[in-house]
Amino acid sequence: MERILVIKLYAIGDLVMSLPGIGLLRRNNPASEIHLLTSGLLAPLARLAAPVDRVIEMDNRILGRSARRLGLLPLALRLRREGYSRGYLLHRMLPLRLFLRLAGPRQRIGQGRGTAGLTRAVPFETSLPEHDAHRYARVFGWDGKEPLAAPFVRFTRPVAEDLLPPFTRTGPVAVSPGGGRSAVRSTDAKRWPSERFGEIIRLLHREGICTVLLGSVEDGDFLEELRADLPKTSLDLIGRTSLVEAAGALSRCRMLVTNDSSLMHLAGLVGTPTLTIFGPTDPARVGVFPPSSRHRHLIPAGIECSPCHPPRAVESCCSAECMLSVTVDRVWNETMDMLAEGREDQPDQSSGR
């Protein structure tokens, strides 16, 4: 049996955006055994959402510092014994190209323009106005002619049941005021001010709507003031859930109000509507895939440099003017509109529909 290796090690949102391409690989190779190498953080989610035969975990800390990348060597030698015929690399780092080569696949396909360490390189940054899900799919041979299947997650057991008290089970609104970080990058400029998220939470409280805050442990470091002033109808789960638990909590929410973040992609994965505030990044490129009226976005008005990433590095932005230009009123009005639309879409129990 042919064995195929796919490498996607970090960035939760990027993993989700790569799933349609991995699904294409699965459909085109039904008799092959496909393995996905990813980090310990992403592995539990990958096991529920990636159409592969095996998920292999790697210590995510190896990517954090150059000195630790020597830890890739024993893993590459272990993978070499698996006898992979093909390998797909969904990163553009030269050390990972060398890692793939050491892992032994005869065919090594990856992102980029030069072929160092690869047998074939597929450009990721092109002049085409397309979604990153399409860019990942091209690595797997997608030619743009057939539609890509939407990714989804299937829970095999109740998830996050114990995290949500009874008062939140009537359909809370999830709020994610953090995001913008991965194992190798931090992009604070993608965040809408936390005090404005606080205003949205208080407005929802006045309407009698419960809220659930979601985010990572790192998000909690700069959200202390927001978390200290939450109304009694708000449940703080920042730093208290795994990825799978966060996805489970999102699946029980009416909608998510968020920055461009991994939780936005998780909400799309479980079918929860999203309202995302964009600034440096382009929703047409990195928004929930596939685009849908259930997933709305707010973009800055009259900010000429937005979006700036790519091609310019958003990490160099000092003002975050684009995010500041999105007002509380805009976010609030759109939130209420989406909640009203959600109520209209619910079946009428009295009539039996």
**Treating each run of at least 4 consecutive H or I residues as one helix, how many helices?**
13
**Structural class based on helices, strands and sheet pairing:** alpha/beta
Strand order in the largest sheet? 3-2-1-4-5-6
Beta-strand level of the residues, as a percent range?
5-15%
What is the name of the CATH topology of the largest domain? Rossmann fold
The general outline is globular
CATH architecture label of the largest domain: 3-Layer(aba) Sandwich
Oligomeric state of this protein? single chain
Overall number of strands: 12
Instruction: Outline the low-pLDDT stretches.
Output: 347-353
Helix content range = 25-40%
What is the CATH domain class of the largest domain? Alpha Beta
Gap between N and C termini, in Å?
Answer: 49 Å
Radius of gyration: 21 Å
> What is the H/E string?
EHEHEHEHEEHEHEHHEHEHEHEHH
Q: What is the domain tally?
A: 2
CATH-assigned homologous superfamily of the largest domain? Glycogen Phosphorylase B
Characterize the structure shown.
It is built from 13 helices and twelve strands. Helix 1 (about 10-30) crosses helix 10. Residues about 345-353 have low confidence and may be disordered. The protein is globular and about 60 Å long. The strands form two sheets. Strands 3-2-1-4-5-6 form a six-stranded parallel β-sheet, sandwiched between helices. The protein has a six-stranded parallel β-sheet with strand order 9-8-7-10-11-12, sandwiched between helices. The chain folds into two domains: about 5-140, Rossmann fold; about 165-345, Glycogen Phosphorylase B (Rossmann fold, 3-Layer(aba) Sandwich), CATH 3.40.50.2000. The chain is an alpha/beta fold and about 350 residues long. The longest helix is centred in the last third of the chain and has 18 residues, at about 330-345. Helix 1 (about 10-30) links the parallel strand 1 (about 5) and strand 2 (about 35-40). The protein has helices spanning about 10-30, 45-50, 70-80, 95-105, 130-140, 195-205, 215-220, 225-230, 245-250, 260-270, 285, 320-325, 330-345, and strands at about 5, 35-40, 55-60, 85-90, 105-110, 120, 175, 210-215, 235, 255-260, 275, 295-300.
